[in-house]
Design goal:
Helix content is 76%, strand content 6%. The protein is mostly helical and 119 residues long.
Amino acid sequence: MKDLHKIIKSEKEVVDEQQLLEFVKHNLSTEAQQMVEKNIAEDPFLMDAVEGLNEVTDEDQINQSIAELNQHLNKLVQNKTKRKQKRRLPANQWAMLAVVVVLFLSIITYFIIHLQGGR
């Protein structure tokens, strides 16, 4: 998670938070603005982000909203990671499960062989 400030990742260009904010304020160079516009045209998520930023006029409110969204996203990712870790069986438990399955199959096989042998 090195790139926490990256909003969109494409193979060629990357638009980060700062560039997006500068784009909304019309403070980018012509080349940078064209790159952002190209990415906006290709990505509906980025287009929605720009539309949302255009609706907010107070820069402090924008920064606060970004911080809240990042905090909420990080919390969701951490919770999902914890749930995945809880679901995993450690290696020794997998081995114990395999032994139990083999024993169960052996017992069933034993009974099947002895029941057919009694006929």
